[in-house]
Amino acid sequence: MRSILITTGIFPPDIGGPASYGKILAEKLSKDFRVTLITYSSKLNWAEDKKLSFKVVRVWRKIPKFLRHLVYFFQVVSLAKKQDVIFALNSVSAGVPGLLAAKMRKKKFFVKVVGDYAWEIAVNKRKTSLLMNDFQKSKRKGWIGVLHKIQSWLTKNADGVIVPSEYLGRVVRGWGVSQNKIHVVYNQVEFKKSELTKEEARKKIDISGNIIVSIGRLVPWKGFRMLIKIMPELLKINQFFRLVIIGDGPEKSNLDSMVKNMRLEKKVYIVGRKSQSEVADYLAASDIFVLNTGYEGFSHLILEVMTAGVPVVTTTVGGNKEIIHQGENGFMVKYNDEFNLIEAIKTVWQVPEMRQRFIDGGLKASGLFSVDSMFQETVKVLKS
């Protein structure tokens, strides 16, 4: 049996889509490969690792940053000796040590690219106000330029690059990576819907009214400020609307201040990060899901929302257009388009037939993105 080393930046018990993806992928790959996974971790040891069908090596995040990355690199080099393939789940913190180890040990190297890391850092550090597409055409300077060169070097030198959407495939091709190295493998959806009724769920989360929910990391390009801004207009449409934002991140204090300054404390709830089962309860309580995002490689979240049976309003960016069919299983508007965002929410709310069509179409669309399909496509790439 061939062996594979998965290098990743996050893994359970840490929460989030990338952590869940890494666990599901390793479990599935362990049927065809001897799998070892190495991760940065908030816990040095985790008892649940003993129950897994693969080996997990953890590098403690409390180690000082430079030393932590050095320890991770030497661990990868050591583990790579007995592997046939190295598969990195991000392009920098896991990808760079993975590629260096692959070159040293003469192993095959593959990487999954889920976004432009240089752009994300530039936005978070307020080095750019450009959206993803415009950033691709801009001149990168300083540390942001270095990160872009690292991404480009890594993807060009990989034996294969896996991306979760055709959109991201075009982005990576723009970095100078040849088309025959790029493989589109759509993300899977493995989401357990809440068994609570809408009223039971609202009682459990202790929020009444007609809930508009949005979920994501609280970063500028997710567009949460606009959702808060339009709440007074939405309340004219339905005084019982309540906006619930699930997530945490660097924008939290700004969003909290905005809610307070607009005196929307009883209308807008920023509830922080939630577990998958808690998110399922919030979705069960909700009437409409809105994702006003300026960038989305491929939204695993939209698939989960569709699985939960909640109608979707989102933006015409990135991989969203590969999931949403306008007017059939959701609405798409331009990012931060205040007028059309309000109109889309208003239409979904006031036309029950359309809302039900979006729910039915969403359930059908989410069913196309199965774990088995993702796994089979990934194995095909790694075995190539």
From TrEMBL:
Protein origin, superkingdom: Bacteria
Protein name in the entry: Glycosyltransferase subfamily 4-like N-terminal domain-containing protein
MF-aspect GO terms: glycosyltransferase activity
Residue ranges constituting the Glycosyltransferase subfamily 4-like N-terminal domain according to the UniProt record: 15-189
Organism from which the protein derives: Candidatus Yanofskybacteria bacterium RIFCSPLOWO2_01_FULL_44_22
Family matches, as InterPro entries: Glyco_trans_1, Glyco_trans_4-like_N, Glycosyltransferase_grp1
Domain spans labelled Glycosyl transferase family: 199-362
